[in-house]
Specification:
30% of the residues lie in helices and 27% in strands. By secondary structure, it is an alpha+beta fold. The chain has a four-stranded mixed beta sheet. Strand 3 and strand 4 form a beta hairpin. 22% of the residues are buried.
Length: 73
């Protein structure tokens, strides 16, 4: 499965977001803009994973969307 991460939305959390997605089994690409900034509030972690749009307020919410738990994924 593939996942795209908006590097602008992820900001300082980019490395952690990529790590969580990889641990969840995704092949990750970091993109400039993936078009979700206009749909979701500023400051959220926006990714497209397996064709689904995910907008999370923090890493815990991202892990919940991906079905992963625990520190670091």
């Amino acid at each position: 499965m593939e996942a795209k991460v908006c590097k602008f939305c992820a900001g300082e959390r980019l490395d952690e977001v990529v790590d969580v997605l990889r641990k969840a089994g995704y092949e990750v690409s970091v993109e400039g803009c993936i078009g979700l900034c206009a749909k979701y509030d500023c400051g959220r972690i926006n990714v497209i994973a397996g064709g689904l749009e995910i907008s999370a307020s923090d890493m815990e919410e991202l892990r919940a969307h991906l079905g992963t738990t625990g520190v670091g994924g």
